[in-house]
What does this fold into?
Amino acid sequence: MREPDRQIRRMLRAIPVALLAALCARTASGQTPSAAPSSGGLGTLDLLTHAATRSISAENPAGGKGRGGMAIPNPGEAKRAASAAAADDLGQGWKVRPFLRVNAHQTAVLMDVKGPGEIEHFWISGALNRNLVLRIYWDGEKSPSVQSPLFEFFGVGHGKFAPIRSLAVVDNPTNAMNCFWPMPFRKHALITLENEGDTDVDLVAYQITYEAEPVPANAAYFHAEWRHGFTGDQNPYVILDNVRGAGRYVGTFLAWSHFSTGWFGEGEVKFYIDGDKQFPTICGTGTEDYFMGSYGFPQAFSSPYSGSVLPATTDRAPSFWSLYRWHIRDPINFADDLKVTIQALGWGSNGKYAKLADKLESVAYWYQTEPHTPFQPMPSTSARLADESPP
It folds into this structure.
């Protein structure tokens, strides 16, 4: 193979198929194509770029070059993070500030950096609880593009940790939560963690790795919204609504509290795309089908694109299910608007479908152009946790 041909093949390997098509279309129309993303998995690890790798942690809060591990022990600090005293005799340069402390009813800043860049990996662990709320803001916006309880954002439902082995989210024992959703930003990235509880959290360990580099012109912004509802009042349950703009829907997480025995997963998932009203463009065939299972969820499983990760059962009530489905190879594209719903259906004693009065929590994940429609207000912790018992 000639060297120029080999170089062309290596370049094409670095460009996702959808982006490659867009680049070809723009080139054919006389427009200048955007730069290809600098990272894209094993197939591009050998391709050098001009991107600079930076990583935010409690040891380097701003991610500055040559600024990691600079904290100086401070024995006089009133409220210290866990293990802060362990390095008092060692001094600067040792493990002085590995953790962050988030006191009751306070908000900590995890990341506050200027762009352009793209977050590639977000890891968080520690003495975490269900009072913590994650928010992410892009490019100086006032309304967050990501708003969710911390656990649910990482696929942990009902406060019950279970390992996840997927491409986008990886949760490892004991409670190490990771996500690999690409999150580009052009001007600024702000990530906060609010403690809505009455108890201080003295150990938050985290690391957010990103590449400082120009962002392609057609790169959309990452969004995620948490919702909850009682299907006795709202059936179909609305996973996502009021999305305006162009984008791609890329994932669903559901924490399902089932309050009766028997199978709960006959309901269909529907995608209303670009002006659909009464009937959707995409209509699935059942809950377990959408989550890439069949004939129920007879056992817990976690795969690259879908999973049912809790050892739940239909033989007792209540039962708590934790389900994820990533649209990585099959994103749902929309040009103007999007709505996503799921029916809560089981079986009645007469052999016919029966509507269920269950409680659902969901996180929808998608990319879109900004500005986005502001999300619904986040309910209090007590209101969120009440979703695990009948009203």
User: Anything to note?
Assistant: Residues 1-38 have pLDDT under 50 and may be disordered. The longest strand covers residues 201-212.
